[in-house]
Amino acid sequence: MTKRTAVILLTACLLIGPLTLSTLATTEYELSAEPSIDTPDRTVTYDGNEFTLTGITQTATDATVEITALAPSEESYYLQFRNPENAVIERVFRTGQSSYSIDFYGEGQAGTYAVLLRQDGEFRAIHPIIVPGYDVSVSAPETVESDEELTVTAAISERSVDRHSDLSNVELVLYNEEHDIREEMELNQSGSYTQTIAADQLERGTYDVSVVVRGDAEVRGQDEILSVSGQQSLTVTEVSTPTETQTSTSTPETSPDEGSDGASGGEDDNPPNAGGGNSQTESQTESTAEVTATPMQTAVPTTMDAPPTQTTTVREAQSVTEEITQTDELTEESATGGSVLEPNTAQTETPGESTTAGSGPGFTHLLTIVAIVSTILYTRIG
What we know:
Shape: rod-shaped
Low-confidence stretches: 3-26, 258-317, 324-359
CATH superfamily of the domain at 23-131: Macroglobulin (MG2) domain
Number of strands: 19
Mean pLDDT: 74
Largest sheet: 6 strands, mixed
């Protein structure tokens, strides 16, 4: 390696080295507090420098806040606690990593306070502290589908404390590691604040929901914060597909081997009636009987060749019955299967003779022929 090359490399190291050390030193200054609320990363500008805020502390004037400062080893700095007017309330000198306890808030007004780390005349880190002037209650759903609307309602009530500024607006904040959505809420006639957002504007995932009350004064380049609500979780999900439930009722087919009750050897959940007949046929028969049957109806055929199932009215039955009685015709079985009309077959019995249903002129001739044949046979034999 030539002398010229060595000189160039040495010069480069001398130029880049201090810049690199300065950059690392700047990024190693941090402030954190307990208690603290995680917030979406937000860049603010103060005293000409930009700072990234990752958390905020909300406390009362009678509570203690523990501050932790992080700085390079052997690096000295000041920690300053400032009020909403940006006046210094307290200042302490520290070296390296250290802690600082805050329990004095000056006049104790509600508003935005801050702890700042100052080193070599420049501010290196900042952490906001809020003394609330309002109580905030938030109502929001836990889940919402992407095709629905999200409605958040906040109830605001004043605290009995002096405030550095008056209420200006109420802000809804939805955030996670990748998204930070802020919407101003509307005042309702009931005194509460509401904001509705279409969920399709939000990426699927889980968000923290918070409501911020802001004042009408500017503090360290931002609208003053007068209160921050507790955080709630909200999950935005995909549109769910409804599950269709179909209920079908099927009637088992009756095979040729099955009985009239539709069963094939096993017990039936719906056994047949006591008579063993088909319940459906009996139901239809009963229904037909209710329509066609009239008390005391009798079905009588109008001619000898008429089918026995023909029916007639009561008056027609009576008329036909009278006619059959007058003409001594044979009785016919009624269509109802039980009532029989008897013809007038009464005869005067003669002593020594018996009258049967089969007696008559035809039977007498037969006896005469039998007697003649018997006489001829007897004569020949004799």
